[in-house]
Amino acid sequence: xxxxxxxxxxxxxxxxxxxxxxxxxxxxxxxxxxxxxxxxxxxxxxxxxxxxxxxxxxxxxxxxxxxxxxxxxxxxxxxxxxxxxxxxxxxxxxxxxxxxxxxxxxxxxxxxxxxxxxxxxxxxxxxxxxxxxxxxxxxxxxxxxxxxxxxxxxxxxxxxxxxxxxxxxxxxxxxxxxxxxxxxxxxxxxxxxxxxxxxxxxxxx
Length: 205
Prior knowledge:
This protein is mainly alpha-helical. It folds into two domains: 3-119, no CATH class; 121-190, no CATH class. The chain is 48% helix and 7% strand. A three-stranded antiparallel sheet has the order 1-2-5. Strands 3-4 form a two-stranded parallel ribbon. β3, α8 and β4 form a beta-alpha-beta unit. It starts with a helix and ends in a 13-residue tail after the last strand.
C-alpha cells in the first residue's frame, strides 16, 4: 500500500467534503505532506476547525480494505481516469458565494465504468424536496430512459427528486426485467466523495 494512497484515503475522511482549504493544501504540498500536517494540527485556523474532530481518527486501513474487498477503487487526481475535463467546470467559481463549488479531493468508486468516460455522458435529474408522486414518477421515467442509453446519473442521494430516482424505479410499473437492469446499473456503478460505509452530511440548500 503506497504512502500516497494511504494519505489520500486519510484526507478524504478527515474533513466533511467538499473542503476547499484541504484541497488547496493537498494541491500545494502533496497528499503525504498534507496528511502529516493535518495529523499534527499544523494547518491554518480554518482548516483546523474542519479537521479537529477527525484528525486523530485514522481509519485508512479499514477503508482501503473495504473498498478492495468490494472490488472498488480509490480514484485520486493522479489517476488516469480522474475526470479532469469535467472538473474544469469548477474553475472560476466564486467560493464566497458558493463555498461548496470545488472539485472533489478524491473519489471512491464501485463498478467497472471508467469515471472520466462516464463523466462525458452524465446528467442530473433534480427538483424540489417536496416533490409530488407524479413528479417522482416522471423523474424516474426520465432517469430510466437515460440510464438505458448509457448516460451516467449524478445524484446527491438527498430526499428530493434526485435521491428518489432509484427507489422510485424499483416501485414503478416498469416491466420487471427493465427494472432489474436499471436498478442493477445504479447498484453496481457508484461513485462518491465519502468512503464506503460512511454517510456524508448534506449541505443546506
